[in-house]
Amino acid sequence: MFDMDLKPRELSPVLSESDLALIDVMQEDPRAPWAQIGQTIGVSAPTARRRWERLHAEESAWVTTHVGWNSGVVTAIVAVQCRPGSVETVINAFVTHPRVVTIAEITGDHDLMLTVLVPDVHELRRFLRVGLTSHADVARMRTMLVTRMFLDGSHWRSGFGVSSRPVEARDGGTSAPSPLSPALATAISVLERDGRAPSSELASALGVSEAHARRFVHRAVRSGHIVQRIDVQLEQPRWPYSLVLWMVVPAGRLYSAAARISQRQSVRACAALAGGSANLYAIVWLSSLAEAPDVEMQIVQDGDVRVVERSIMLHYSKRMGHVFDSDQRRTGHVPWVAGAVT
């Protein structure tokens, strides 16, 4: 007999066009002064601040800060197949793990998709062998490494802001990333807790002047050592579904295909992969499931892109460190730096 909870769930506040305009402007620089933000959207600084504080209090939007892709970390996408009836058990086992920054339930051959950020491949190997595969309820897994992050959540725009032009994909440069320094780890630790933490707090933590702290964070964000973005509530009517595409592209066309795909406003993430059957990965936000075939057709239109697997995300238990309950309400945050720096 099925146990069904038929009680109506409390719906999250709907983001208005003015809310989305504010979010788009803050995506350009989540730490920008309120006067600058207000001027861009045509309101006073106090009004811009009050609007943001309302969104934050409602858990409708928040600043997410995480270690950047150019900071020397290794990023892995791990698809996990759980033993029957054990999905929740596996989620609960890893939702508080600082290395596992994202856990999503998905459709298809696997039950979960994890994003794992570790300082190096040796720690990834330890996590996979000791942490993940040794869990009794993990039946099978598939791991692929991110070699280039062309587009992430910090590039996403709703289209309602003043600056709603398409965002260029990151280039495929081959310069070696810098290692995670103690100063960078300290700054990330502060900004993980509060993405708009005052310069005085950053200066105190870093042991430098406020001006130096501001410059340090600005350079770290510009260089991709720190990523800051505005995230919105998971349950919202404009883009309630996420389509995950695993693709194969000829190596010589990989960067051009990624650039073209990343120009689509609905694309939330786009990354090059190594170590598996796919070499390109994308997450696309959809307004309805009926859009999925058309979106896929448009993405493969030039003939060089072939989709080898597709999934729909059913639920995020964790997204870039932020934890969500079964009703998709944000309930907490697990800092990455606490697990990465000893």
Between the first and last Cα atoms, what is the distance in angstroms? Answer: 49 Å
What's the CATH H-level superfamily name of the domain at 14-58? Answer: Winged helix-like DNA-binding domain superfamily/Winged helix DNA-binding domain
In CATH, the topology of the domain at 14-58 is named Arc Repressor Mutant, subunit A
Tell me the structural class: alpha+beta
Number of strands: 12
Strand content: 25-35%
Keywords:
342 residues, alpha+beta, Arc Repressor Mutant, subunit A, 8-stranded antiparallel beta barrel, two-stranded antiparallel ribbon, globular
Mind explaining what this structure looks like?
This protein is of the alpha+beta class and about 350 residues long. The protein has a domain at about 15-60: Orthogonal Bundle (Arc Repressor Mutant, subunit A), CATH 1.10.10.10. The chain contains 11 helices and 12 strands. It has helices spanning about 15-30, 35-40, 45-55, 85-95, 120-130, 180-195, 200-205, 210-220, 255-260, 290-300, 335-340; strands at about 60-65, 75-80, 100-105, 110-120, 140-150, 225-230, 240-250, 265-275, 280-285, 305-320, 320-325, 330-335. The strands form 2 sheets. Strands 2-4-3-10-7-9-8-5 form an 8-stranded antiparallel beta barrel, surrounded by 4 helices. It has a two-stranded antiparallel sheet with strand order 1-6. The protein is globular, with a radius of gyration of 20 Å. The chain starts with 16 loop residues before the first helix and ends with a helix. Residues about 170-175 have low confidence and may be disordered.
